[in-house]
Amino acid sequence: MFYPTIFNDSIFDDLMDFAFPAVREANEVDKKLYGKHAAHVMRTDVREHDGAFEVLIDLPGFKKDEISLELENGNLTVTAAKGLDKDEKDTKGKLIRCERYSGTMQRSFFVGKNITEEDIKAKFEDGVLTLTVPKKEQPKLPEKKTIMIEG
Question: Taking Cα atoms as reference points, which of 96, 92, 81, 87 lies closest to residue 33?
C-alpha cells in the first residue's frame, strides 16, 4: 500500500514542451536549478519488511533542518529546501563554474489514510533520509446485511 504519487513525475515532459511552449518556459526554472534530470534528484529506495516499509531517500548536501515531512490525507510529502548564500561566494573567490543547486524539491508517497504522524519514524544520517512507515490494515467495513421487510 505504499505508492509513489504520479503528479511529480515528468513522463510526458518532451511532448508537453513541444505542444505547449508555456509549459516549456515553466520547466526551464527547474532545469536551471537542478539540471536536465531534475526529476531524479530525490533518488528513493523502498523496502518492504514484515511489519513496515523502509524508505531511503538520497539527499546529499542537505542538513537535517533543511528537510521537512508532512502527512496529509494519507500522502507523505518530503520537502528539501536549500539556498546558496551570496556572501559565501564572494568571500571564497570568483565563481568559475556552479553545478550545485539551490531551491526546493519535493516528493510525495501515498502511505494510507490510517497512518498518523506518530507512526512514522525518521532518521537523517550521512545524506540519507530513512523513514520507517508501519503497515496498517485498513479498517474493515461492516458486512452487508439484508433487512427484512414485514407485511
Answer: 81
> Where are the chain's structural domains?
3-134
Q: Closest Cα partner for 58 from 40, 43, 46, 47?
A: 43
CA pair distance 20, 101, nearest whole angstrom: 26
HEC per residue, 116-136: CHHHCEEEEECCEEEEEEECC
Lowest mean pLDDT among 89-98, 115-124, 132-141: 89-98
- Residue type for position 52: A
**What is residue 3's predicted lDDT score, i.e. its pLDDT?**
57
Q: In this structure, which topology does domain 3-134 adopt according to CATH?
A: Immunoglobulin-like (2.60.40)
What pLDDT does 60 receive? 87
DSSP character string of 51-78: SEEEEEEE-TT--GGGEEEEEETTEEEE
Q: The pTM is what?
A: 0.62
